[in-house]
Specification:
Length: 216
């Protein structure tokens, strides 16, 4: 499978307004650790029918991939390993967007369950201290925006977050937030993107980010 993955030509859709060609052009990885229905509905509002799947062939053939995640890191990683997705995801060539726990699992390591990540982002995931209310739950701003993922998004825009762990600020950071300290609320490495916040729950600004991802 690895040789097949490497040799596949992954074409990117350039269609505007979220109109991707083909029923499987956008997939949401369904591995049992994500609030996937709300993400699927968010894309439906943009005119895109996202396919929920853990099928390796469908994921490889898609133009765009969403890697969601809600829950505990070590349990989520165990589910990825059971389906072979831990080996597949880092090899993907099309744009991939990790959301919340999905982004954290794309990092090197998380303190949650002392879990080794996929190593896509060169970042460590730490737990907020007891000096602040944990989890951070509600609206917070994103700043220092550096990517086409944030086209038409203004600095200090509010996004909705629910998390107890954060990715440390690093060279791959494309947005930061402050809660006890400054941390990376979005990351980018080649065709891989990650956001700590929930764009599907962040109103028009969140939908714009999803639209921007479709347009990459």
């Amino acid at each position: 499978m690895n040789n097949e993955i490497r040799n596949l030509d992954m074409s990117k859709s350039s269609s505007p307004l979220g109109k991707l060609e083909g029923a499987s052009s956008l997939v949401i990885i369904n591995y049992g650790a994500g609030n996937i229905k709300s993400i699927q509905f968010a894309f439906k509002r943009l005119g895109v029918n996202a396919v929920l799947t853990n099928n390796i062939e469908e994921i490889i053939a898609s133009d765009k991939v969403i890697f969601p995640g809600v829950g505990e890191a070590s349990s989520a990683m165990k589910m990825l390993k059971e389906s072979g997705l831990d080996k597949l995801i880092p090899t993907l060539k099309q744009p991939v967007l990790g959301i919340c726990l999905g982004m954290q699992l794309m990092c090197n390591h998380t303190e949650e369950g002392d879990t080794k990540g996929l190593g896509i982002f060169n970042a460590e995931v730490k737990r907020f201290s007891n000096k602040v209310k944990v989890p951070q739950m509600g609206w917070n701003t994103i700043s220092n925006l550096k990517s086409d993922l944030f086209k038409y998004i203004k600095d200090h825009e509010f996004m909705y977050l629910v998390h107890s762990y954060y990715a440390e600020n690093c060279e791959e950071s494309i947005a930061t937030s402050n809660y006890e300290l400054e941390y990376a609320s979005a990351l980018e490495n080649d065709n891989f993107y990650g956001v700590q916040f929930h764009p599907e729950k962040s109103g028009r600004a969140g939908e714009q980010i999803l639209q921007n991802f479709l347009n990459l």
